Amino acid sequence: MQTIAVFQQNNSGETKIKGIAKFGDRQFDIQIFNIEPDLPPVLDDTSPYLPKTIEADLVLDYLKHCDLSEDLSRLCDQLGIPIVSSGKKLQCGHAFCPPICCTLQESNALGLYGKMFGTPRITVDLDEDRVAQIRVHRGAPCGATWLAAEKVKGLPLDQAMTRFGLEVQFFCSANPAGWDPLWGKSPVHLAADIHTAALKTSLKKKKETAFNT
After folding, report:
1. Could you give the CA distance from residue 54 to residue 201 in angstroms, rounded to a whole number?
2. One domain, residues 10 and 81
3. What is the DSSP track for 165-192?
4. What span, in angstroms and rounded, lies between the C-alpha atoms of 23 and 32?
5. pTM value?
6. Which of 42, 98, 113, 180 allows an S-S link to 104, with CB 3.0 to 4.6 Å?
7. 72-87: per-residue pLDDT in tens?
8. Rounded Cα gap, residues 18 and 102, in angstroms
9. Residue 16 has pLDDT above 70, yes or no
10. How many folded domains does the chain comprise?
11. Is the dihedral of CA 180, 183, 185, 191 positive or negative?
C-alpha cells in the first residue's frame, strides 16, 4: 500500500481524493491536509499552514495559493518525497508539473500512483462494430476515464469515438475557464483530447494485432 499525502484548500482536491479511493483498488492510504482560512495574496511565512514534516510516499498538491505550493515543493525536496503539482509552474524543488492530472507521464519515482493514474491507457473490446467495453489500465485520478468508459459501452464505434471525449469533459474536475496558451486549449478540452487519443491508440493496436495474426 502506498501512502499519499493530499494538500488542498477548501476541499479543492475532493474529486481526485474520491477518484483515487474508488478506482485505486484499495491500494492507497490517503492522508488529507485541508487548509480552510482565507489567505492574503502574498504569504511571507507559510509555516502556520504547512506541517514541519511529512510521512508519506507521495504528495499531491491541489493547493490554490502559489506560495503554499512553492514551500510545499521545497519541503518535499528536502524530505526526498516526490510531489505532483498539476497545472503549476513551480520554481522550488523538483515537482512533477503536468498541465493537467491526466497528462502525467509514468515515472518509477511516483510508485503505484504513477502506474495507475495519469495519461490514460485503455483497451477497447469490440462486439462487431460496437464497443463491448473499455478496460482502463491507467486513468485520470478524478475517475473521469472509468466513468466515461461506462457511458460509451454498447455504442457504435463511430459514435463512441466522439462521445468518449465529451463524456470525459462532463466528469473532468479541471477548471473549464482556464486557458493554456501553450496548448491553446482549456484544461477540460485538453483532457478530452488526451482520452480520444488513447481510444484511437487502442483501436490502432487492435487492428495491428488482428493483421499480424
Report:
1. 39
2. yes
3. HHHHHHH--S-TT--BTTTTB-HHHHHH
4. 18
5. 0.91
6. 98
7. 999 999 999 999 999 8
8. 15
9. yes
10. 2
11. negative
Q: Retrieve residue 210's grid coordinates.
A: 488482428
Given the C-alpha cell 497545472, which residue does it identify?
Answer: 87
Identify whether 23 is part of a domain: yes
Strand partners for 135: 123
Residue 211, pLDDT above cutoff 70 = no
Owner of C-alpha cell 513551480: 90
Q: How far apart are CA 177 and CA 189, in angstroms?
A: 10
pLDDT of residue 205: 85
Determine the structural domain holding residue 134 and report its residue range.
Answer: 121-212
